[in-house]
Every structure is written in C-alpha cells, then in structure tokens.
Amino acid sequence: MAGIYIHIPFCKQKCTYCDFHFSTTYQAYEQEMIDSFVKEIELRKAYLAGQTVETIYFGGGTPSLLNQEQLTTILTAVRENLTCSESPEITLEANPDDITAEKANAWKMAGVNRLSVGIQSFDDCDLKWMNRAHDSQQALNCLPIAQEAGIKNISLDLIYGLPDLDNERWKKQIEKAVSLGATHISAYCLTIEKKTALHQLVQQKKLIPAENEQQSEQFEILIKTLKGHGFDHYEISNFALPGFISKHNSNYWRGISYLGVGPSAHSYNGKSRSWNISNNPNYIKFLQKETFETFDWYEEEHLTPENIFNESLLIGLRTSWGVDLTALNAVLELDFKFNEKVDHYKAKGWMFESNEHLILTESGRHWADAIAEDFFI
Predict the structure, then answer these.
(1) Residue 19 DSSP symbol
(2) What pTM did the predictor assign?
(3) How many alpha carbons fall within 13 Å on the CB side of residue 87?
(4) Better pLDDT: 210 or 239
(5) What's the fold here for domain 305-375?
(6) Alpha-carbon distance values, 337 to 78, 344, 375 (Å)
(7) Could you say which architecture CATH assigns to the domain 2-253?
C-alpha cells in the first residue's frame, strides 16, 4: 500500500494566513511545470517499487486551476510508471470559485472521485480579510454543482478561532457545512504564521486573535455538533461520516509510504524522508536536465530509531486508533519511565489503552502535541 501526493504550486491570489509554497504568476511556465511532474514521476518510480498505489492526492496551492488535459497527463504518468490499484482514491483540492459544472464534469472524467473544498468560512466578512478568492454564495453553491457531476465524496475545510467569531456563529457555520451534504469535514484552528499577511495585521493590531479559551470552546462545539450528526472524530482536525474517512491522509497517520511530486513536496518510505526544493523555476530547471550527478531537486534525511519513535507518537496520538505499542516497542524498548508517563496521563483522564494501542480521550486531544512531546526520546 502506498500513496502519491502531487503539489500544484499555483494560486490566483495569496490568502492572508497561508505559508504554503505557491506562486500567483505561474501562467508563463504552467505547461513546463506539468512536464516536470511527469519527468519526476518517471525518475522516481523506484521509490515505491513493489508497492501498490491506492491513493493519489492533488494538493497545493490550488489544484482546481488544472484542466482535464493536465490532470489526465499527470494521472497517466502515475499509472504508466507505478503499480496502481483498480480504483484508487483520487482527491483534488478545490476552491469554491473554481467549481463550475464544466470543470466538475472534467475532473470526474479525468478520474477524480473525491474533492477537498477550501470553504474556510461561509461569512463574507471573514472571507474578505482572509483574502479568499470566493464569496459566501459560491461557498454555498459549489457542493451541489460537484454532486450533480457525480462526485459524492466531498470534504469541506473550515477554520475556527477567527477574530470576532463568536460561538453561536461558529456553530451555524458547522451546521451549514453539514446541511450541504459534506461527507467529511476538516476543521483547523487559526494559526498565525510568521511572514504571512495575517501576522502583519495582528502586529499592526488591525485584527485581534481569539483567546485560547475561546478556541478551546469552539473545538468542543465542533466535536459535539458533528458527533450529533453522525460524524466520526477520527483525527484531531478531521471528521467523517461512516465510510468516508480520507484514505490518503489516514495513510500518513499510519506511517504508510508515499511519494511527493512537485516543488516543496515531501516523501516518506519508513526509513527516510525527503523534500523537494521550494522554488518553481529551479525545480523545472533541474527536471529538464538530461543527466544528474545527484538528485539536485530534493534533499533526503535517513531516519534514526529515535526519529521513528517520536514521529509515531506525534501522529498516532492525533488519531482515534492511537499508537500501536507493539510496533513502538519494536523500534525502541518501552522502559519504566515511558510506562510511568502513561499511568500519569491515564490518571488525568487524558489517555487509555485498548488492544495494545495507546489512545487519547477527547479531553486529552486538546493537549495531543504536548503529550507526545513529553514522551519524545
């Protein structure tokens, strides 16, 4: 089992909170970028040798800027160079303003069977200061368009902990997402990253961030509301109706191998992690070379047992299935100090064991990263 992640570094405009790698001036080299994706897939096909690709994920950036021909070109390269399952989960991240009947049908024809839609908010005031390219009406209209095209597996992204977002308005946002027929919801607490426009707005006191207590309250509202509608809280930021968990992202959290294609994309094979350069012109330049003395376009880190141990805790404790203690012990022997910490968090009501797995309670999930760090070697 394995996955492919393809990073599409194209955007119409820059959102205030975003620190991902992308460009808004990509039109001049758009086709060269597509050709470079194909070349990288051909050159790195041995990375997943002997494994079957079951998930393909177009992330970004804004993959919904791609047309059917470009998507088909990339997917053909994947199928010709790697072993794929008969019906892999193929996810495309999309912005509401890009979802038209024509494009949705084209994506469906290209093989896309899952959309991850960046709604973020249904409120025009929020969308304006975020500098999103869509408005609230487009946010409401996009799901029925995609569903009519035959794409039924649709995830929505929402952000909470926004300036001036009170709890009642947040609950209405969640209810609206559910009413549209979303099968999956990813909800993230607003984080203020340095070197973003949002960071500048906060520094200039033009926006006042929500207090930690309110962010925590809105997380609880999120959990309670979605559980009431039958959603499974299977990862800290992710909720799904039965049968609709993100297979691709779940593979990340289970430590399954994946190949990342495109500038800034990361790859993982259980033994090492690599990451591509975050520079579009240089990525293209390196991939257009005929020969390579080294893999110029990416760097690689070989993981130590300590790295694997720590990462297993960090990602596993975020999920509803938790950390496999048998597998963890095979990496590094679990000692008295480890078990002492487990007992401590059990006593606080933040952790429990089930079938040789260490799992956080709902209250424990508020502190998942801090708890994982406490166990780090």
Answers:
(1) -
(2) 0.94
(3) 2
(4) 239
(5) Arc Repressor Mutant, subunit A (1.10.10)
(6) 46, 11, 9
(7) Alpha-Beta Barrel (3.20)
Residue 166, token pair as written in the block: 């009170």
pLDDT above 90 coverage of the chain, percent: 80
Angle, helix 336-347 to helix 368-375, in steps of 10 degrees? 160
Which of 309, 298, 324 has its CA nearest to residue 373? 309
- DSSP for 118-140, written as a single string: EEE-S-HHHHHHHT-S--HHHHH
DSSP 279: -
Strand pairing report for 238-240 and 232-235 = antiparallel
Q: Is 42 helix (H, G, I), strand (E, B) or coil?
A: helix
Domain range summary for the chain, segments of one domain joined by + = 2-253, 305-375
In order of 161, 215, 349, 360, the CA distances from 364 in angstroms are 19, 15, 7, 5
Q: Exposed/middle/buried for 5, CB within 10 Å: 0-12, 13-18, 19+?
A: buried
* Contacts (Cβ under 8 Å, ≥6 apart) of 255: 268, 270, 311, 312, 315
Q: Pairing between strand 266-268 and 184-189?
A: unpaired
Give mean pLDDT, residues 63-79: 95
Q: What tokens appear for 242 in the block? A: 């039965």
Beta strands in the chain (DSSP E): 2-8, 52-60, 83-94, 114-120, 153-160, 184-189, 232-235, 238-240, 258-261, 266-268, 272-276, 298-302, 323-324, 351-354, 357-360
Within 10 angstroms of residue 10's Cβ, the number of other Cβ atoms is 21
Instruction: Please choose, from the candidates 138, 150, 141, 78, the residue with its C-alpha nearest in 3D space to the C-alpha of residue 112.
Output: 150
Q: Using an 8 Å Cβ cutoff, are 116 and 155 in contact?
A: yes
